[in-house]
Each structure stands twice: as C-alpha cells, then as structure tokens.
Amino acid sequence: MSFETLGLIQPLLDAVREAGYSAPTPIQAQAIPAVLSGGDLLAGAQTGTGKTAGFTLPLLHQLAQKLGPNPPARRPVRALILTPTRELAAQVEESVRIYSKYLPIKSMVIFGGVGMNPQIDALRRGVDVLVATPGRLLDHHQQGTVDLSQVEYFVLDEADRMLDMGFIHDIRRVLAIVPPKKQSLLFSATFSDEIKALAERLLNKPQIIEVARRNATADTIAQRVFPVDRDRKKDLLTHLIKTHDWHQVLVFTRMKHGANRLAEFLNKQDITAMAIHGNKSQSARTRALSEFKSGELQVLVATDIAARGIDIDQLPHVVNYELPNVPEDYVHRIGRTGRAGAEGEAISLVCIDEEGFLADIEKMIKRSLPRETIAGFEPDPHAKPEPIQIGRRVLHGGLSGRQGSGRSSNGSANGSGNAPHDGQGGRRNSSHHNPAGKKPAGGAHPRRRQGAGSNSKPRAARP
Prior knowledge:
This protein is 34% helix and 14% strand. The chain has helices at 10-18, 26-36, 51-67, 86-99, 117-125, 134-143, 159-164, 168-177, 193-202, 233-243, 256-268, 282-294, 304-307, 327-334, 355-365, and strands spanning 41-44, 79-82, 107-110, 129-132, 153-156, 183-188, 207-210, 221-227, 249-252, 273-276, 299-302, 317-320, 344-350, 388-390, 393-395. The longest helix is centred in the N-terminal third of the chain and has 17 residues, at 51-67. The two termini are 37 Å apart.
C-alpha cells in the first residue's frame, strides 16, 4: 500500500514524500481513511507507530479543501489537538508544519513554561491548527485570548497519559468550551476503563481501531535484565556505556532528583549527560532534547512524564535505571527504541528491591526477560529486599514479604509511585501519581503548579 491509495490531496503527498515516507504504517493505513470518512475515531496505538501522521494528514486534507487556495489572513481555530506534555505538543505541531508546507494552512503550538504574550500575538494573527497542552490552553481561554467556538476537529493525543497526569478535569473543561458538533479523535496506547469512559463522553458512534496487542512490546526490541545491587547501579551503567561505546542512550529514573544526581555522576565519568523532567525550564528541556537528537549529548536521563513525546528515529538504547512499579510504563519506556522496523535494545538494571516489579512486568507482557550477570557486578546473594518509601507510603517491590503487586503497606493501591532508592542507597522525595479523576493528597487541584522546592507537595504540573 502507498499513501497515494489513501485519497490524500497531492500537496500532502508531495510533503510526505519529501519527508522520506513511501508507505503508511498500519495505524496510518487504518486511521487516515477513517478520519477522511468524517466520523469519530477511537484508536489504540503504541508509541512509535506513526499515529501522529495518522490524524494530522487527514485533518490537513479536510481543512485544505474547506479553506480553498486563498483563505483570509485572519481565521479562527478550526482544528484543536490536545497533548499531555510540552515536548509532544512541539513535535506534533512540527509534524503539522512539515506536512502542510505546500498548503496555505497556519499552525502553532502553545504550552506552559514560556511567556504568554508571543502566543497571544500569534493567536490574534489567526491560526487554523492549534496544538496545546491543557493548562496553557485554559489559561488563554480564561483571558479571552483564544477563540474555540469554531473548532470543527478535536484530537486527544495520548489520552491515557493525560489521565495518568491528572488532567481529567482539564479535559472536561475543554470539552465544555469547544462546540458539541465536531469530529473527535481519541488516541491512546491502552484502552483502560477510564479511557473507555472518556470515549463515551467525547465520541459519537466512533470507529474503533487497534493496531497492536494491548501492552505488547515490539519484536524488534532486544530486552535484557542485569541483576545488580542497588548501590552498584550507577557504576554498572557507566561500565556498560563505556565498554560498548554507547551513544544516544535514554535512561529512565523514577524521580526528578534521582535523574539530576545520575546525570551529574555520569558527567563526572566523562559521559555527557543531561536530565529532563518537570522542574527543568522549557529552554533547558528543549536544549537537552536538541543536543540528544543531534548526538552531541550521549545520555539523556528522564522521568516517565518528561519522556513522553520524545520521538527520535533510530534510538538504539533505552535503559531502565529503575524499574517502574506500574507495568504499563515499562512498555511506554522501551517503546522509544526499535521503531519503524529498526532494531533497538532495552536494558533493565534490577536490584532485589524491584524483583516484584519485574515479575509484574513479565506477567503483563506474557514473556520472561533473559537475565545476564555482568562480571564484577554480581549481586550479593544474601541481600534482603528493602521496602520502597514514597512520602508516607511504603511499596514492597521485592518478592519476599510482598503484600501484593504494587500495594502499599497500608493496603492502598499505589500509582506510578516513585521509589526513594536512586541506585546510590539514598532517599528521595517523590512525585505523586494521580489516577484519573482523583484529587492528589491534600485535596489540591490537579492543575495547580508544582513548587520548585524538593519538599513541595507533588501535583500534576502543567506541561
């Protein structure tokens, strides 16, 4: 199959060809005709499947036909694309610009962490496609600087992560603002009960497509586990990077503070590294991503939320420095390598405290991951698992004495909880995972900004 068979107009086909794409991915082959048909769509696709083009290309096709060759200089927002993070918003809007290069269509992106005035000026000049994060979009609406009354196309991208980040209230507010009559598209890596409930509220008799088995990992990703003591992780990571001369290594930690400490340690070992997380300024995040993509930066250390939206072709290595205690996050993490048929490698450094998390992951992906012990880094056979404390909660990630998968000592289910261990035996403050529709601890509104101090109450910060 080729893009020509999907019914897209020639300017889009020319832009796609110049971007180096000749054949649509499975999600594109199914989503593009579905969107062109004019109905609502519920699409399930893992990260890295090409879903962005799956909705941007048909939206641009329909907009171009309605606007004609000579649209007015100032026009209202017709297509609104909502994403969970700044990085993903920027990359989606970049895709819109690449594909619309031969069309008289104007697009822009708005997110928090930068000044509003330049965004206000651009909105006043008129824009056809607006890509936004929830918090900043609502800021503009409250100030009367964006008009969403003529939105005809509405996209929720990575809706599962939206809910994970506690944006359900913001999504509901946006839905109350945009017109009820519109074409709505919802893209999600998983179809949880919360996603299905959101789809029922947003979508009208949608087509449903799903191109990958739920919680599946790509066959092109070689997955391995290296058992190691918790206080030897940083040394083992250094050994692996230097011994194998790895470049462009994406490393995941659970916590912002752990990401900072690990990046500092790697730099002291003459390995160029930077951390990316919610407390970093937008300029610092943009610079880190740019240097990592160009190959100037050897290692990017990221937390789960900050890494959402990192889209790098041919990324060879992903390392789980700390295993997530939510198995689905493992799939999201390693899905950033092995894309578009390319081979990739996913390494997990697992200490005894995390053996239970590993068991949960293997159960979910329905396969056992091969273990490989590195000479000189053999784990202590007499080591005992330590509980992982998150604020006032305690997670039992070890297999012995575990009270149940991902449960805290008081019996409450944890979210994407963050262990205090950073691989250096230290304790850390935590970010709190906010399940969809639930208020964070203390009753704080999920859109309230997170304080810069390490002891500030964790909240779902605006992207």
